[in-house]
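Technical appendix A lists one of the benchmark inputs used to test multi-chain prediction within the project. The record comprises two sequence entries:
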Amino acid sequence: MQLTRRRLISAGGLAAAAAALPAAAAPAVRVRIRKFAFDPDTVSIKAGERIEWVNEDFAPHTATEADHSWDTGEMGKGGTASVLFETPGTHSYYCVYHPHMKARIVVTA
Amino acid sequence: MTFRLLSAAVLAGAMVLPAHAAEPMNDLEIAHTAYTAGQLDIRYAHLALAVSENADVRSFAETMIRDHSAVNSAAVDLITELNVTPQDNDLSRALVQGAADKRAELMGLSGSAFDCAYAQNELGYHQVVNKTVEDSFIPAVTVAPLKELLTDALATFKVHEGHAEQMVSNLQCS
């Protein structure tokens, strides 16, 4: 799944901080979701870079900011989603379906 | 290889497997039984959504429907790809009967009594199913894609077991 800006906004997102990017740009970091964990569980990127999640589990997952300011939406097995982070900051996120799955993104200038 | 693990009373009321359930199961019987176990948990979850007003219980039930549906969908895809037909068997039939009995018991409950009974059944169900899948089904299966599917599914079911354990604890059931 490739996110759209509209989707992020409809999720109540801070579009200025995290937004969708056209599929052409390669992600700076790819986070695997497997065995109910984000791998790696902490990633560091620069502002303007994108993170892509790939779900390798049977169970659907999401990557959702703790304050719900951005959300990938549901990713089924083999599904992907990406988010562009435009401003520096730290994001704690989790899977809304399996809240014990937690991870962190550090965005630097 | 025997499959008496599933005869544990906790699985579905006081289910006792027929004696010949101890016979080795083939891949198609294992596939049918694993699929059936998932479908039965989905039915428990739908019952929970119909009865429970507890947010945590309802959230757990929704997760069971979502996750088990995903696993069983993958199983159907594999069965279609392999062009085989899973085989009904004594164990899967016993599972179905045991679950029907348990649902009848649960339908007579409401409020916290239902929540606790549902949560405790989910914990016991996942404990026994997981042990059976891990100790019996996966070692016995001969077709690699099915073994892989069961292995991946077990990872999901173990998370459910942990979630159920937490739910039971949070409900503070006596």
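The domain at 5-108 of chain A is CATH 2.60.40.420 (Immunoglobulin-like). Chain A touches chain B at residues 35-36, 57-60, 76-77, 97-98, 100 (CB under 8 Å). Comparable benchmark entries are summarised in Table A2.
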